[in-house]
Each structure stands twice: as structure tokens, then as C-alpha cells.
Write the C-alpha cells for this entry.
Amino acid sequence: MDVGIVLPTKDEPRWVQDETRFKEALKDTDYSVEILFSQGSSAKEKENVDALIAKGIKVLIICPHDGNAAAAAAEAAKKEGIKVISYDRLITNTDAVDYYVTFDSIAVGEAQAQYLVDKAKGKGNPLYLYAGAASDNNAFLFFEGAWNVLQPKIADGTFVIKNSSEAVALQNKPKLTRDEMARIIGQITTNWDFNEAKRRAEDNLTAAKKEDKGNVFILAPNDGTARAIADAFAADKDVTSYVVTGQDAEKASVQYIIDGKQSMTVFKDVRTLVKDAIAMAKDLLQGKEPETTGTYNNGKIDVKAKQTEVIVVDKNNVKEALIDSGYYNASDFTGIQ
């Protein structure tokens, strides 16, 4: 077995999509590959890695369920001389990661926030913040990027934060420490879970006064949580309109964008990310040094990384970005112009 791939869960459309793209990318090569899912469990993830090590893989591509907990799996692989590529999410606090293939996560957060800023008029716009899971390093990077763009607009009164006392307390700070971000994320986490996102949004709306609603702006971290949060805000009669962000260009969210229920998504072309990961694995199998474009500190070392570009998609360019590029078929959607 040449390459082992471990993905976090089959329960999110995003990862099933990645599995398909990996299979497509590898079908014309001579390399043998096996793809396993961790089903949201770090213990299962470690079992998967152990099973792949036993099969004699030379390269491990792993998207960790929990960046910290995955360190043990990476270390087990490294001990056997296997090259470890952290895929999409960074494995943290270990020197057992050789490379990182990623979208520029800070750029994702900045793009989401910039979209909100571009749509806001005047002062005092109600802003609701949501984040991913505190166990996922990417959730911090997305939030950091968003804060880079939103903070000046919160400080000048364009936006008023309505659902996080921690964020309000830190609103005059352009750069947050990891601990400060963790305090905010602790209040606004969705854990990347639809039900938790909807529940949190409903709780926030119940607690909010009528004047905290009206035309609202919502930072939602990804498409699954965006749809859940959008549904909660759409159901509140005191919400006149909402602008809500997303990422991953999941089919259900593309339909939401066409239908005007979700404002935008950050399209991360998984084909490119998969291509980058496979190219890196091939280089390693051939004893070559893979091409990298930057580094990310994982708490222990600076991990060499290859960064993939991201694209903002809304109603105006959805057809061009997602259908004309061959990523999806027009027949997957209704009402596409």
C-alpha cells in the first residue's frame, strides 16, 4: 500500500466529496491507496492510522478530527518512517508532521468578513458571530481572519456585536491572542454541528431584544452551520433581513444561495487541494522535495505548507464559479440562471 488517507467523518457532505475527488485523482496512477473515515472520533482515527501502518503505507494523508489528539497518530506513523501530510486541518503540538496542504484559512475568514462589510450601510448594524469547533485549529484561523476585517468596523460603530460578551469586551483590540480567541469561540462555537448551530442561534435570538434584530449580519463559519443559522434567523419575525456567510460550496448551500436563503460561500476548490496533496505524495514516493508556499506554526514546529486559493461565490457568480468550471452540474440545482 502506497498512500493511506484518513478523513474526519462521513456525516458532512464536504468529506464525502473529498473522498470522491481523491478517488478521481488517483484512478489514473499506479499507486495503491486506501481511504478511511474517523467518524468524529480521535480513537477511531488512531485505529485507522494503525491499520494503514500495518498495511505498509509510505505516505499518510490525514485530516484530523481533533488537531491535538491526532498528534499520537502522526507520531506512530513517523516512527515507522512514513511521511505525514496534514490535509486541510493542521495536526498540532507535534514534530511528526512533514507537510501541510491547506486553503489559506485566514484568507477564508477575511473573505467572509469583507462580504459582510461590503453589504453594511450606516452605523449600528447588529452583528452575530459564530465559529467552528474549539478543537479545530482552522476554526481559530477563520476567526482570526474575520476579526482582522471586522474589528475596525466594530470599533467605528458600523457593527454592534449582539451575541458574545467576550467579543464585546475585546472589541477594541485589533489582534487577539490565542487565549482571547478561545474565550470568544467558547461562547459562539457551533462545533461544526448543524443542530448545535441552530440551537445557539435560536438561544441568541430569544435573548436579543427587538432592536437587536432588524437587518442583521451573521458570520457563520461554514455551509452546514450557515444553513442552520439562516433557518433560525429566517423564522424570527423581528428579523427583517439577514446577510450570512458560509464556506465549502456544499450543494445544499449553493441551492440556498440561488434561493436567496444564504448570501455567500467561500468556494475552496477541493479538486485543487486534492491535486496538491496527491502531487506532494507522489513527490515523496519518488524521493523528491515537494513544492511549498509558506509555513504554519503548529505549536511545536513550523510546518511547510502548500496553500490553495479560495473564491468568493454569491448569487452573481454562482453559475460561472461552480457550473461553468465543471465543479457541479447545472442539473444538480433548480432555478439557476
User: Anything to note?
Assistant: The radius of gyration is 20 Å. The mean pLDDT is 96. The longest helix spans residues 137-155.
